[in-house]
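Hi everyone,

Forwarding the result from last night's run.
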Amino acid sequence: MTAITDLEIFARVARTGNMSAAGREMGLSPAVVSKRVSLLEERLGTRLFQRTTRQLTLTETGEGYFKRVVDILSLIAEAEDFVSRRNTKPRGVLKVTAPTAFSRLHIAPYLPQFLAKYPEIELDFHLTDSYVDIIREGFDLAVRIGELRDSSLVQRKLAADRRVICASPKYIETFGTPSDLAELDFHNCLSAGAQDFWRLQGPDGHHQLKVKGNIRSNSLEFVREALLAGLGIGLRSTWDIGPELESGALKVLLPQYAGSDTVAIHAVYPCRDFMPEKVNVFIEFLSEIYGNEPYWNRRADIDRLLKPPCAVADGAAAKKASPSEPRSKRRAPPARGSDVPA
């Protein structure tokens, strides 16, 4: 029978793709790791890794073996946690992956409070806006923002992700305000990641709007700064731009439309018979911090900002505008693919 330690060594090598890195994590020399993996392959009578001078990758058999080994090691960890939970407080290393900007704004500020409450927990955070396979990478928990598809993972909603169409006063003054969704086609719409379509809902139902612009980035923070600089219009989460909405640095456009309510902030973790207590208390902690209506919405008074302007206000604004100025004198939005004046 294969020793549990050999399974742990195999799993570490599979995750890191490197004998030396796996050895460092486990306090073993690369030579010992290599020998244990070779003995494991010998005992199983198959090659688990494809080795080259530069790369170490799992074979097809190795991939199947790895998935089963991960399940075995998870069950062992659960069994040990079950015993420890009966006698001790939540403890151990909690390995979490989460979006960069959200973690900086809405997780990191509360970690001192969490660690003071649970001093026996150690936190290992991996921040990225990319999708991470939490089972393959050995994470206890992921915080994900979006519309989650069906999977073998367990999901728990932490908070709603309310998103608004917005732009800076500088952009509005230069290029005007779109009066309906169709007019967005004539504006410079900035995208983050693979946000080619804006999924919106409004009084006339749901819309999937293809948008175009001359700036795209994998960084939410980069796009927020571009919006503040007056370079375009964006569909942004209120958790990201709450202070800017509150101060007026960004203005809500087309308030009758907002991002689809199927998008939310979730905690995602492997499907198990029970959760390790360290995972459970962290999820509960975040849920209590955010509440039913997240604090970032309450601070910016999002409900007020999303109220469509009344007809009277629209009429007053129309009278205030000078009727003598031809529409052609308004400056056109920047051409896509061209430079936008600062």
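The chain has 14 helices and 15 strands.

Cheers,
N.
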